[in-house]
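Can anyone check this?
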Amino acid sequence: MNYFLQSWSDAAMTSLGFFWMALWAFAFGYFISSLIQVFITHKQMQEKMGKDGFKSVALGTFFGFISSSCSFAALSTTRAIFERGAGFISSIAFLLASTNLVIELGIVIGIFLGWQFIAGEYIGGFLLISFAWLFVKFTNPKKLISNVRKRLSYNQNDDTEETSSWKKKITSIEGWQEIAMKYVMEWQMVWKDVLIGFTIAGIISAFIPNEFFQTLFIGSGAEAVGTLSFFDVLSQTLIGPIAAFLTFIGSMGNIPLAALLFDHGVSFAGVMAFIFSDLVVLPILRINAKYYGWKMALYIMALLLTCLVATSLVLHYSFAAFDLLPNFSGKNSIIKQDMFKLDYGFVLNIIFLFISGILGLLWWKSSSNMQHEHESNDVSITQWLMRIISFLAFFWLIGGVIIKIIGINAS
């Protein structure tokens, strides 16, 4: 088996191994998210977030924490609550919390990167919201916000969300069918990002040499750990969002890529900047432009870039001050782990596959009687591009598995 075929097989098996390691975390997180989305409606959120004071921002953060982790779902929900009267800063707090403070994201980060990155993700989420608040206060975009509200022109008569009690929902088959619908919709929104992100991670691990990372991220590499200058850390923090912009993968799909960056010696700040950059990728920019217009979309982009760079630097040097920076040695590389071993993750995968099967059956039985409201019409070009890349990724993985099987049989 020549080098390319062997690398293809290794890349595919690495991608599948990454997904197997994280499967239970995805399922668990989306199950919890589905429960919360059924019991707490958008209408209930916006009623508590009508201003931009501390209480409203805190509630926006809390509602984001208990919502979906999908970047695209977060954009849709943020627009909905802002359109219904929530304050701009409160809406931004919700957006940042729903993509940085959610439970499932922390679990996946823990699987691939370790506790320092979990702490960085959650502490950083609050820092992002604080910096965003300061950014908005300093730039004072009142006229821009006013124009966007006129553009959205929400009609209260369009709000048809039901507010029946959670006790009634959780004890009825209809309530569980609604939960199943939310659960399946969560997977429908993220499967392309996850498939592409994990496939790219496998390809990078198998085909991209260390020299590439050392060139792109100045100062990266095991030999540079503990000796990075401020310029090195700053440059890596700035390159992180650029790398994320080019990969255009969502918040859950880019975690294995972040793990690969850390495996290649990229600094804590650089990796965190990459993780925080899920909202500054091209598809997100286009969706915001469709929702709010290009002026507001570019303003939000500038806000997010400024805040994530500042947050990543603060996290890096705060952790360094307490000697808590994760120590890269190469020995605990994610690539070197046995991804399919029989452990707690294997057992949890089986359990949540069973739960997913039950929810899938409930969804299938109720889907013919329910109508879905999709936002995909707003981003048809992006959707078509994602579909094409998803199919290519799927066939890449299938081909790699076939090569692996042929290679085993041949030996």
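Reply from J.R.: I decoded it. Residues 371-379 have pLDDT under 50 and may be disordered.
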